Amino acid sequence: MFKNLPEAPVAAKKPVTDERHGISRTDDYAWLRADNWQQVFQDPSVLDPEIRAWLEAENDYQKAAMADTVVLQKALFAEMKGRIKEDDSSVPAPDGPYAYGSLFVTGGEQPHFFRTPRDGGDRDVMLDGDAEAKGSDYFRLSGASHSPDHARIIWGYDDKGSEYYTLKVRELADKSDREDRIENTGGGGAWTPDSQAFFYTRLDDNHRPSKIFYHELGKPQAEDRLIFEEKDAGFFMSVGGSKLDDFIFINIHDHETSEYHIIPADDPLAEPKLVAARETGVEYDMHEGGDVFYILTNADGAKDFKIVEAPVESPGRENWRDVVAHTPGSLILGHGVYKDFLVWLVRHEGLPRIMIRNRTSGEEHAIAFDEEAYSLGLQGSMEYDTDVIRFSYSSMTTPSEQYDYNMRTRERTLLKTQEVPSGHDKDDYVTRRVMAPSHDGAEVPVSLLYHKDTKLDGSAPCLLYGYGSYGMTIPASFNTNCLSLVDRGFVYAIAHIRGGKDKGFAWYEDGKRQHKKNTFLDFIAVAEHLVSEGFTSPERIVAEGGSAGGMLMGAVANMAPDRFGAIIAAVPFVDVLNTMLDDTLPLTPPEWPEWGNPIASKEDYEYIASYSPYDNVKAAAYPPILALAGLTDPRVTYWEPAKWVARLRDMKQGDAPVLLKTNMGAGHGGASGRFQRLEEIAFEYAFALKVNGLST
């Protein structure tokens, strides 16, 4: 499988001892964390030479290990690229006299943002992403937000991968950028109704969106007015506007608690008004509906959320009145408000549906589909006074379809079906949803895709994907990339494990903090179930996950290394304990509600220590492991996978390789271009094929 490998890099051991709660731990590889990590995010060239040398040695090693797959990688890339319509365009969404959309051009890596007259006509390209990215090794646009008078846009870009975005303002009459230049932002802005100013979040040195500023066009950033500051480092913050342009919303939240402040849009320098004070464990999200706000919340024990309304003049919690009652087992995922209709997206028994209520008559109806597993997305509308919303539908076999839906007449209009230029026959594939019994009897949903000719006798290789954190649900949607594996005989499986909200909010709660191990045990149970049902065999399973899903990969590798043939861990959050002990890191304080606070709690410390992948590497026969990192990643810092690989290589038994590929010019999301990203996926898939003896 991996023959004639050069000698693997060996990281130096420089022990650092830490003592907390009377417990002492020694970290041999703490030195891989650069002392100047904040500066590295802004300028990767300042990385310590010793650290850079080790990362580059690891890159050389993985290149040697994967050298025999170069032709395969090119073939996979060509296949995946061939399934993408290169000159694709979104269906523009109407707003006032125009309709706004985005497109890609043949050979282009970056989106172009355009508009047309509302009722159709020539495209006017407002922003050419390929032109803006020229000369940059990394470039990612944050979007383009048009002003209420449609005369200009705010647009943002990140040219390092560190997610510090620069904002610019473009005049649409002549496509010139004004002198306004706003550095170190979260990536977007909220316009005032007069289109002469906007609000934005500024990131501090620790990458936290801690302040909201007001910027008047034509003035330097140094003169921007501070509107709001969040002192608690445990909370994120964002700013946005309402459809009616009546309010500016300041949204403050962590993973389980939220708080809103509102500003009248016509009085932008007014003191922000508190809606409902933060209360640990209570979340709410709000939209304007004329003289009332509609608020999605889990208050009053509504675990799967309900919708309440409150008067605009006095929106405090004492005035909240239920309008969509809490229904256990039916999780409300989001909502939208229009002049005559209230809309919400709900997941019941693992499948989504869109609910619509006439605000006057109270009559309700649903939009749903019949496939065994599918994905439904609610785009809504940019306009308030409309009867038409937009949604998308796909399944693992069905390319994405986009519809306009008239909420009054209940008519669906198919706007666009995703094109697969190289061809796709959905009848060649099978999608299924099975339930895997976990260690405690919980039934874990699993979405499956395989070719109709694949033999289900245990001989098929399998890519088993999992995430299982933050309440994130991995949809059973159409994925053209995985067809390159499925067409080669793979079963592609998504494990909807606890820690996500696939079966309601309780499914999330049962996979966080002191219940986190359920996430890992569920994933192992899914692997065992797929084997017992003949879909695959242990040595044929390639487990894959990224970020918090990469933590999952590290945990299951420690807990059950013999259940998997290989592991792919993308930007893996594997140094959980050390990261949660360091409150200077960008995301640590806001993450404590998800994982626990090991600084304050010995119980949290001991529980995290019991599963943290880096801390639990042992002398065992691990399967082949591929770890992927980004040097400027502010979410999962590069040293987490680097330290993990160093310890694995030091302690593991057997000759299965451990590979580390660090993107020296990108962050958490990998390469920024759409085709550059395909090259990275081709590399991962080539590894999955190689470990299954299918690389030729």
Automatic annotation (TrEMBL):
<dbReference type="GO" id="GO:0004252">
    <property type="term" value="F:serine-type endopeptidase activity"/>
</dbReference>
<comment type="similarity">
    <text>Belongs to the peptidase S9A family.</text>
</comment>
<dbReference type="InterPro" id="IPR029058">
    <property type="entry name" value="AB_hydrolase_fold"/>
</dbReference>
<dbReference type="Pfam" id="PF02897">
    <property type="entry name" value="Peptidase_S9_N"/>
</dbReference>
<keyword id="KW-0645">Protease</keyword>
<dbReference type="InterPro" id="IPR023302">
    <property type="entry name" value="Pept_S9A_N"/>
</dbReference>
<dbReference type="InterPro" id="IPR051543">
    <property type="entry name" value="Serine_Peptidase_S9A"/>
</dbReference>
<feature type="domain" description="Peptidase S9A N-terminal">
    <location>
        <begin position="10"/>
        <end position="417"/>
    </location>
</feature>
<feature type="domain" description="Peptidase S9 prolyl oligopeptidase catalytic">
    <location>
        <begin position="477"/>
        <end position="691"/>
    </location>
</feature>
<keyword id="KW-0378">Hydrolase</keyword>
<dbReference type="InterPro" id="IPR002470">
    <property type="entry name" value="Peptidase_S9A"/>
</dbReference>
<dbReference type="InterPro" id="IPR001375">
    <property type="entry name" value="Peptidase_S9_cat"/>
</dbReference>
<dbReference type="GO" id="GO:0006508">
    <property type="term" value="P:proteolysis"/>
</dbReference>
<protein>
    <submittedName>
        <fullName>S9 family peptidase</fullName>
    </submittedName>
</protein>
<keyword id="KW-0720">Serine protease</keyword>
<dbReference type="Pfam" id="PF00326">
    <property type="entry name" value="Peptidase_S9"/>
</dbReference>
